[in-house]
Structures
1.
Amino acid sequence: MNDSQHDGQQHEDSQHDGQPVNRLIHETSPYLRQHAYNPVDWYPWGEDALEKARTEDKPVMLSIGYSACHWCHVMAHESFENDETAEIMNRLFVNVKVDREERPDLDEIYMNAVTAMTGSGGWPMTVFLTPGLKPFYGGTYFPPDDRYGRPGFPRILEAVSQFYRDRRSDAEEQGDKLKARLVELAGFTSSSETLETGLLDKAFTGIAASYDATNGGFGTQPKFPPSMALSFFLRDSLRTGRRSALDMVGHSLAKMANGGIYDHLGGGFHRYSVDAKWLIPHFEKMLYDNALLMRTYTEAYQTTGDAQFRKVVSETASYLIREMLQPGGGFYATQDADSEGEEGRFFVWTPEEIKEILGEENGRLFSRYYGVETGGNFEHGTSVLHVDVDLDPLAAHLEVEPEALRAVVSDGRQALYDHREQRVHPGRDEKIMTDWNGLMIGSMAGASRVFGEPAWLDAAADSMRFILDAQYEDGRLMHTFKDGRARFNGYLDDYAFTVAALLDLYEATFDPAWFTHAVTLMDTAIERFWDEQDGGFFFTSDDHETLIVRSKNPYDNAIPSGNAICVLNLLRLAAFTGRNEYRDRAGKTLSLFTDYMGAAPGGFGQLLCGLSWYLDTPVEIALVGARQDATTVAMLELIDRTFLPNKVVALHDTAAGNGDAPVRIPLLAGRPAIGGATTAYVCEQFVCRQPVTTVEGLAELLKRR
C-alpha cells in the first residue's frame, strides 16, 4: 500500500466543527470525506490499516464506492451512520473505505473477486479480506436488517467474523482460490490466428444479435449508453457499406436523445436507464459518459448530417463548460444522483408545476410534448421529461401550428431551466481525474473541429494545460487532483487517454508542442506498463505498489479499455512518424486479445475500432501553408466534416514561425508548398499521391478512399 503519509494522522483533531470525525477527514476524496463523520473507525487504504489487521489478526472490511452513487448513500445512511452497526464493525474488523475513482486498480481486482463469488457486481461493494488482502467473502449493497430474502448487514458482519475466527483455514483456502482465479483472469495468451477482417464481420454479427430494434441500444434493462459499440458500428458501416450498422447507430442515438436519460433542460446525459426505453435514468451525471457520447454523436453527425445530433453535442458541451469546468481548466468528475436526500428530485416535474410556471395552455402543450402526465412516470407522482412523439406530428394531433408548438417548447425549456436553477442542486465531486479529463479534452477538441466552436477548443486546451501543470510530476502523470494536491501514481488509462487527447489537440490546433507531449507520454507508458514477455499493457506501472495481482484489462467497461486506446495511439503515432515499432506493438496487443474479441465482442467495441484501423490503410494528410489562408481553412473544413476515422492530419503552418514542425513530425518532412500555395499531400505509409493545391483536388483524393 502507498500514499499513506496522511493515513497516520488518526484522530488528533477528532472534533471538526464540533462533530466527532474519523481519519477520512484528512482525505481529498469527496466520497471519503462524506464518511468522515460516521461512527465507523474508518481507515483510508494505506499501510496503517494493513499493519493493524496483521497485528490484531483481524479481517479487513473493504468498502468501495463513489460520491455520485445512490445506493452508496443509502447504505451509508442505513449502516455506516448507525451506532450499533458501527460498534460491530469496529470491534470485529479493520474497516477500510476506498473511492473507486481514485483507486481503479483496487476496484478492478476486488470487483472481479465479488463477481467470481456472487455472479454479479456493483457499488457499494463490500469485500472481506484476510490481513494478506486475499478476498474470502463479499457482495454489493447489504440492507440494515433481514429483508428481500437477504440477511441484514449486522448478521453478515457477525457471521463473517465467526467464520474467520472458527474456520480460519477455510477462509485462507477460499482466499487462495479467489486469488488464483484473479491471476487467471489477468492472464492472456496470444492467438495464432491471423488478424483479418473476418473478425470484424464476426464481431458485428455478435453485437448486433442483442440489438433492441424497438428502443435502440443492446440488451434489456438496465440499459447503458453503448458508446464504444456504436463507434465500432460507424466504422463498420464505412468499411462495408452495411446500411444496417448505420441504421442501428442513428436509431439508438435518437432514442437516447429523446429519452429521459438525456437532460432536456440542461444538456448532458445521466448514467443509465433502469428500463429498456431510456425513460427513467439513474440520475448521476458522469464526466466520462458525456465525453464518450459527445464523441459518438459528433461522429454520427459527420456521417449523417442529422441536426438532432448536432443539437445534442452543442447542449452537452454547454452543460460541461457551465457546470463541470473548473475555473482555469480541468473538468470535475461527477454530479450526484440525489438532492435533498432524494434521487432525481432536482430533475423531475409535475403537470401542476409546469402550468404554474408557463401558464395553463402553454403548460398543457409543453407537458404533452415532454410526456408529463398526472400520476407521473417516476416517484411521488413526478415525471422525467422525455419525447415520445416528434413535434410536427404532435402539433397536427393537437391541432396547433408546428411553429407555435416549437416556440412553446423552446421558451418553456428556458423557463423551466431558470426555475430549476433555484432548486437545491445535486452534489458535485470536484476531483480532477487525469483519465476522465483525457476523454473529455479529446472529445471537446474533436467536436470543436467539426462544429467550428473555438470556445470548446479553449476549454480543452486550458484543461490539458492544467493537467500537465498540476498532475504531471517528474515525468510521470498523477491520477487525481483535489484541494491543491495531486495524488496516486498514474494508471494506464491516465497515460492512454491523455496521449489520445494530446493528439486530438494537435489535430485541432497544429501546435507541435501537443504532439511532442504525446510522444513523450506514450514512450513513458511503453517503458512503465508494457509487458515485454506477452505483449499488451498492464494497468499499473512497474513501480506501483504490489497488489495481489497485476491486471491487464482489454475490456471496455464504463470507460474504454486502456489497452484499446493505446492501440489507437500507437497506430496514430506510427502514421505521424513512420516508426514501425509503434505499429508492431499495436499488432502484438491486438493479437493478445484476438480470441477474446471473437468470443465476446460486446466487451471490445474500442479494441475493435483499433483492429479496424490496423487492418485498414490509414490516410496520412499533410498540409503545408499558412494556417489562416483561405485555402488552408477550406481544406481543413473539408477534412473535419468528413467521417474518415482512420486518418491523421498534420499542418506545417508556414506563417507561424514554427519551422521545426517537420522535424518534430516526420509526416511533414520534405513536403514543400508548391508555388507558395497551400499544398495538400495525401499519403499511405508515407507514400504520397500527387500533391494538390485546391480544395476540389483534395476532395477528389479523399473520395478515392
2.
Amino acid sequence: MNTIRIALAQINATVGDLSGNTDLIIDYIGRARDMAADIVAVPELAITGYPPEDLLLKPHFTRQNRLALDRVIEASRGLVVITGFVDTDGSDIYNAAAVISDRRLIDIYRKVFLPNYGVFDEARYFQSGVRAPVYQLKDARIGVNICEDIWNPGGPARAQALIGDAHLIVNISSSPYYAAKSHVRERMLCTRAEDNAVALAYCNLVGGQDELVFDGNSLVIDEDGLVIARGKTFEEDLLTADINIERVFSERLHDPRRRSERHSASNEQVEIIPIPTVESNSRQRPAIPARASAERGAERTMDEIYAALVVGARDYTRKNGFDKVYLGLSGGIDSALTAVIAADAIGPENVKAVFMPTKFSSTESARDAKALADNLGISLVTIPIEETFKDYLKMLAPSFDGAAEDVTEENLQARVRANILMALSNKFHGLVLSTGNKSELSVGYSTLYGDMVGGFNVLKDVFKTTVYLLAEYVNRRGNSPVIPEYIITRPPSAELRENQRDEDTLPPYAVLDAILKSYVERDLSAESIIAAGFDPETVKWVFRRVDAAEYKRRQSPPGIKITPRAFGRDRRMPITNKFHN
C-alpha cells in the first residue's frame, strides 16, 4: 500500500443539532466512499457543533451525542472514519476523535492541549487526554490529533511521527477565523510537516456560530512542507488527496538528524493500534479534481473578510430561524455596507431597509439610500420621525426645563428609530441588524437602545478604516458600483444635529483606529503608544472613552469576529474598574 487516499469533509455544523450534524457527516462519508477514499475525516466536535459551551454541562446532551456517534459507526462501511465528538469515562468528559473502521469503533483519541485563551474556554469543560496513539492501516501508519495539539511543536504530532513512525498525521479542527489567520495557520502546519518529515491532513470546520465564523481552508501537506491540496474558503467541501507513503519513508532515510532525535526520545511511549483490513470497493479510483493555489495580497484579504461577514450573517440569521432582516438605512457608509452584506447573505428580497429622516437628514442621504436600495434590489420604506421626535421633546419639556440641549436630544432620535425597527421586527418576524462599527463601539460613539439596538451586528468587529476598504472592494466586484460614490467620499456624520461631522467629536478615523489597535488588540500602555508618535491628549482621550464604554458593549448585540481580538468573547474587561493606564 504505497499510496493512501485521504478525504477531508469540511462541513458546516450547527451547535446542538445532533441529528442534522450526523446526517451531514454520513452524507460526506458517502461522498468520500464514492471517491474511493481510504480515510475520511470530519472536524473537531462535528457531532455537537463547535463550541457547544454549557450544553456540555448537560449529561443528557453528552449521552445523545454518543448515540449519534453510533449512527456514524454504522455508516462507515468500506473506509476509516475519523470524527469529532464528546467522549466520557463516567467521571469526566473529553474533546475526542473517534477512529472508526468498517462499522467498528477502533479507538478514541482525546485532545491533549486544551486552549483556554481568547475565544476558547475548553479547560472549563474538558479533561486533557494523555495518549498519542498511532494507527496501522496496512503499510501506512496514521497519527490522529485535534486542533490545538498541532499548534504545540512538542505535542502529540511529534511523538506520533518520531516514535510511532506515522506517515500521515490527521488533525481535525474547529479553528475560528480572523483576518489573515489562514496564512499564519498554513505556515505553522507546513512547518510541523517539514520538521517531522510527515504528511499532514488538516480538516477545519466552516460556517458561522454566533460571534465566530470558521473559514474551512482545510489542507493536505506533504513531508517537505508543501501544500498539495487546499480546501475552499467559507464553503463546504470534500478535499481529497493521495499520500505517497514510500516518499515519506524515503525522506526520513535521507535525514540523519531524525535518528538522534528518535534515540533521545526513546523513553516516550506511543501505542501502535492495528486497524483491520477494510473491505473497500474494488473499482478503479476516480481522478481527484485539480485545486488552484490560493491568492495572496490585499485583495485576497478583503475577499476573505467580506466572505466571513457574509457567512456569519447568513448562518446567524438562518440557524436562528429568521428568513428576513430589517435595518435602518441612513445614507451613510456603515448601513450601506451592512445592506450589501445582508443582500449577499440571504438574498435581496429578504432585506427590508427603512429610511427614517428628521430635519437634520440631508437630501443627499435620502437620494443615496434610495440609489443603494435600487442597486441592490432590496425593499426600502421611508418613515419620517420628525413629528415623533417633536412629540418626545414636548413630552419631556417640563422635566427638561432650564437644561440646555445636548447629546440627550441626539440620542432621542436614535431611540425613536430603534423603536420603529423593533416594531417591524415584532410584527413581521425579522431580525434587526444594527450597523455600528468597531471604531464607534470602542469609544462609545453610539446610542444605547438606539443605533445599538438589534439582534446582530455585522460590523461589530470591523474598524471604520476597514469599512471603507470593504466598500471600495464591493464596488470593484461588478460591472458598476453598488454603493453610490458619495456615500464613500462624504465626511461621515450621524446627522443628529445641524452640520454634524464625526470628526467634531472623534479623532480622524485613521488615527483613532491605529490607537485602538494598539490598546484594544495589543494592550499597550498609553506611554508606549505616545512614544510611537501619537498625540498624548488624543491617546488619553481614547483610553478614557474605551474604558467608559464597556457597559455599553456588554449590552450590544453579538457580531462577527474578524480581528485577532474582538470585544466580548476575546476581550473581557470589568465594567467597575479603577485601573487606567
3.
Amino acid sequence: MKFNPSLLLCATLLNVHMMSSLAIAGNNENPAVQRGLTALKNNGAAARLAEGDQFSAREVVKDKDGSEHVRFERKHKGLRVIGGDIVVHMNAAGQSKGQHHTMESALQIDTIAQIDEASAIAMAEQQFAGTRNAPSTADLVIHARGAAMLSYEVLVHGEMHDGSPSEMHYFIDAKRGGIVDKWDGIETSAVTGSAKSLFDGVISVNTDSLSVGGYAMRDLTRGNNYVNNMANRTSGSGSLMTDADNVWGNSSTSDNATIAGDVAYGTLMTWDYYKNTHGRLGIANDGIGSSSKIHFGRNYVNAFWNDACKCMTYGDGDGRTYYPLVAIDVIGHEMSHGVMSSSAALVYSGESGGLNEANSDIFGMLIKFYAKNPSAPGNYLNGEKLLIANTGVTNPTKAFRYMFKPSLDGSSPDCYSSTIGSLDVHLSSGIANHFAYLLAEGAVVPTGFNLTPAQLVCNGNTSLTGIGRDALGKIWYRALTVYMTSNTNYAGARSATLSAAADIYGANTTQTTAVANAWSAVGVN
C-alpha cells in the first residue's frame, strides 16, 4: 500500500481481545492511528468487534478543523474479512465521532474449511467465461458482504472473447461449495461494443527530453506519468512512446503518436483536477504517477483500469463505428477507478459495484468540465465523442450514458429498486449518475432533449433546484474518501453524502437539504 508522505501510515495490527486488554502488534508512530485504535476498543459493539479481530490502518484523512478519519482493514483469526473495513471518525480532541462500516454483526464463525483449495479452484474455473492464461490461486477468507461465510477467494486470470483481460474474483463457500459472490478486478469504462476518441484540438503536453536525442511521452511535473505503446499486443507492458521532434501525431489515427498526445493530455487534466480541486496528489495521493497503455489489441472497443499494475489501458476502437477510446471523460473515468481503489475500494459487484462505476462517471464528467476545452465542451453525456456518427455535431444527443436520464441508453433504470444490485454495474451506476445530475443542476432538461422536468425525477418533485458542480464534486469526494467503505450500498451512499455535505456546509443548509432531495428524486430514501 502506497502512502501519503504528509500522513505517514504504518501497517500496524490491532489485536482485539474482547475480554482482555487491547494488544497492539508492531511499531506505530502515527498518533492518529493510535487514537483510531483506541476509539475502536472503546466502541467495540458499534464496530462489531469480536475476539480474534485484527485491524491494519490503510489511510488517514485529516480535516482543517483537526478532525481525523482513519480507515482500517479487518482480519479475523488471521483471515481477511471481505466487507469488514471500517472508517473511524474523531474530533480534534481525539474523541470518537462515530464509525462507518457495513458489518451486520460481530463475527462468530468456524474457520475450518470443509472443501479443499483444489475443489474451490475447479468450481471457479468452471464459471470463467474467457480463456485462462495463468494458474488460478485460492485464499481462505471470511466473506462478510452479507451474512458472514467462510469462503475461498479464487483468482482466475485470462482473456475475454473481445480481448479484454480479466482477473475474476470468485468466492466459493468453503463449507458446502458453490459461488457466493464474484467480480472482475479489471474495471472497464464501458460495456463491450463501446469506444472512445479524442477531438481536443491542438493541445500542450509535458514530455521528457532523452539523452540520446528525441523525446519521451513522460510528464516529469506530475509524478512521471507516462504512455506506453502496446503495438496491438495484449500482453506485456509495451514500450515507452517516443518522438523525434516533440510534435506528436497529425490529428488522425493514421499516426499512432496522435493517441499518445490524447492520453497525456487527459492524464494531465485529471491529475490537475484532483490536485487543484481536492488537494489530492495523484491516484493514490502519494505524488506518484501512473502508466497508460495505448494501441491495445486490434479493433479493441474498450478501456480499463487494472488494479494489479495501477495502470490504464486504451483500445483503438474498430475505426467504423468507434474511435480510439481516449476521450478526456474516459481517461478521467479510468484514473478515478484508481482513486476508488486507494480509498473506499467499493467492491465491483452488486450495489457497491454500481456506485464504483458511477464514481468514475461522475468524476469523468467533472474533469471534462474542468478542462474547459472548446473542442470537447463539458456536458452530462458519457462517451458521446466516441461515436464516429457524432463527428462534426455541435450538440450531440447520442451517447453511451445519459446522466440526467439514464434510461435513454435503452437499458439503465432511472429510479432505484430493490433489485438494482442484480444488474450489470454499468447499468446500476445510472442511479448515482442521475443523483449527481439532479444535485448539480436540478430538474432542468438539457438543451436538445425533448423531455419534461417531470421525466427527470422519480417522485414528481419538479421544483428540485441544483447546487452546482463544484458542490457536487466536493460532497462526493468527501463521501468517497471519508465515509464510504467497500460494501456501501445506495442507502449507505445517501448517508455518506449527507454526512459529507453537513461537514462541508453544515447540517441545516441548502446544500445538505439538496443532497437529501436529490436522492429522494431517484428513489433512494
